[in-house]
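Narrative summary of target 7.
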Amino acid sequence: MPGRPVAARSGPVGAPTPAPGWVRFDGVDLPVNPPIEPMLATSVKEMPTGPGMSYEPKWDGYRCIIFRDGDEVELASRGGKTLTRYFPEVVEQARAQLPVRCAVDGELVVIRPDPAGPRLDFDVLSQRIHPAASRVAMLAASTPASFVAFDLLALGDEALLERPYAGRAELLRTALAAVRPPVYLTPTTTDVAVARRWFEVFEGAGLDGVIAKPADIGYVPGKRLMFKVKHARTADVVVAGFRWHTSGPVVGSLLLGLYDDAGTLHHVGVCASFTAARRRELVDEIAPLRANALAEHPWVQAWGLAGAATAADTPGGHRVPGAQSRWTGKKDLSWEPLRPEWVIEVGYAGMEGDRIRHTAQFKRSRPDRDPRSCTYGQLEQPVRYDVEAILRP
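Modeled conformation, tokenized:
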């Protein structure tokens, strides 16, 4: 059972200080205790090189530090919240396979079957966060999560934060040498040519890049001392709606669409990273497209303004902007239609099924493009790859 949240207490000498507002859980008593902010990575365009540089796949899941103190186990998220109650099967695996006293940094992922080979599924993983205990138990059985370990913060009575990464990695390999699925030790290499190959082929298994770690760095919570190389792509998409910003009558986000082979316009994501000044400008720019937008709008005709959240919920599998889901809570997802005539170029890292993963970045308007030419066919499709082949020792 997860520990009872209590006020943040002082840890051992040299232990990191919890961020303001975080709480500490009383289930474990280790040299490094939760909550602790994980060490982060800086985005770079080229694969970094240097003496002793290590490379590993960048896993697409939930960052998670597992703290084990005997039978007591805590799963801490990147934001200092507990994940323990949502992943009881991971707690049991931690008790069965991790060292008796340890703090291990890693990633929670869901590996799902696929005709082209098992791959990561972030959408399924996101559904694991649910308030109902009965639902948590059902999902733990039907879509169990795996844990991929890639750093070691404490072992026994020793805090390892000040040890160089190369030393921590060696201890981790020794401590987890006997683990078996669904607990994994991430593959690593010091060969930059291998890392570049991983970057090219592992995306087909649902991974989203490569992490590079200098050999001499300590584990500094919250600091971006590692490097990440992620895929960067662009696409021309149709703007077919928008949402108001919570700060007032300015544009919050643009709703993006792509046409399929049958000529159906699907909602594929949002573009939302605008300055306050740009949000005000967009109100005037989209004003002509608001006129008569309801008439024959493909998303309104498919489902209405209070539509479903995913294509699976709509008649004929038509993806339209949606209503609340259990992971959006009470967030206002109402939207207003625009005549689907404005084409823009956006940057994105990758696709999750038939939608853009994460928020897209506005690049420029494309007045030269016919909206009907903005189809899924322009998207680069990575070759499918078996994620279990990546994790196999």
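The chain has two domains: 38-231, 233-378.
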